[in-house]
Structure formats: C-alpha cells, structure tokens
Specification:
6-stranded antiparallel β-sheet; about 80 residues
Length: about 80
Amino acid sequence: MATYFVVQTFQQGNKGVLIPDHARQARDLNHCKILAERMAKTSASVVAFSRVGDPSTGEWDDAVVVAKYGDVPAELLEMAAD
C-alpha cells in the first residue's frame, strides 16, 4: 500500500469558471499542507488531498481532503466524501 499526497490548484477563467492547473505531488502530509497554503496565495482555489492504495493493482481508497482554500469546486469535495 502507498499513500500519495496531491495539491490541485485552480485559476479563475472567463465568467468565473475555475480552470485546473497541473496537480503537484507532495512528499508527505505536512509538505502537502504547507504547499497548499503557499499555492493559495497565487491561485483562485486549492484543494490538497491524500489517497491510499496499491499502484500495482490500481485499487485506491477514496481521496481524503487535508486542506482547501478558496472556492473549491463542489464536485471535487463530493468525490472525496464518497
């Protein structure tokens, strides 16, 4: 089993539409939270999450949100809560 930590940022596009940037992988939980906080200063919104699973089988648990800043798209938060 492996745990991946990811920070996804969004920029504001035309008419308020949020556009996802490239996701960034963090080393661990603390790095994930720090990176999300830092990136929130230059992004419209940020969501940081972790996922546990087995890369060899492709089986993954649901994402767990560890930090969010700004107006994070509801679809992302719903996926993490399922």
